[in-house]
Amino acid sequence: MSQLHHHPFSAASRYVRLVLAEYDETVEFIEEKPWLRVPALLQMNPAGTLPIFIDDNDTVVSGGPVVAEYLVETKGARMGEVRLMPEHAADRAEVRRLVEWFSQKLHGEVTNYLVTEKVYKRRMAAGEGNNSPDPAAIRAARANIRYHLQYIGYLAGRRNWLAGRELSLADFAAAAEISCIDYLGEVPWEADETAKAWYARVKSRPSFRSLLADTLRGVPASTHYADLDF
């Protein structure tokens, strides 16, 4: 059976979980601590980051965007048109542009700050790192999320899905980041109704159910997190 080394609140891991669920793939989930540099994981991925996917043929693939495209090419092909990547090169380029935007820019300016300060640091044992939350990082994330939410609303207001006519990896890359932020109650949904409507469409998909069932001891989900109608 394939394996996914992940953390429930790693947005990149959530991205891959969504793609796996969309393709109805059964995998073994192995939870890791993203803040630790575990030698066994470093052998598989020298960058020391999650997720790491091990296919049932022992192929090792690491990094959310890379794993997602690997799944499109190896698992999605058997599903015909439901591939999550467009047919034409220019359209695929737009999907990849947005995946990079969400997995790097949105993650770096918002998700990483909030998850590190409000989730990871609560789980760090003595000696595993500085577990004192940084208020400045949280303030920066709260300021930056509004800009990113407006951009999602801009895209969703001009296209059927974020990258074009069809649901694509871009939607799941964005939704994975937003889901982490929304769990923590840090998405100002009142700031953009179009973005809110797009997210409601994505989180209503069956592939989203496992994410909505995620819980974290000591950090309760926002009251609307698992509510499909907000």
TrEMBL record:
Q: Taking every annotated instance into account, which residue ranges of this chain make up the domain GST C-terminal?
A: 88-222
Q: Show the GO MF annotations.
A: glutathione transferase activity
Statement: the UniProt record of this protein carries the keyword Membrane? no
Q: Which SUPFAM superfamilies match?
A: GST C-terminal domain-like, Thioredoxin-like
Q: What is its EC number?
A: 2.5.1.18
Q: What class of enzyme is it?
A: transferase
Q: Which key words are in the record?
A: Transferase
Q: What highest taxon heads this organism's lineage? A: Bacteria
Which PROSITE patterns does the entry mention?
Answer: GST_CTER, GST_NTER
Keyword field contains Ion transport = no
Q: Name one Pfam family in it.
A: GST_N_3
- Assembly information from the UniProt record: Homodimer.
Q: What is the designated name of this protein?
A: Glutathione S-transferase
Q: Which organism is it from?
A: Kaistia geumhonensis
Phylogenetic placement of the source organism:
Bacteria, Pseudomonadati, Pseudomonadota, Alphaproteobacteria, Hyphomicrobiales
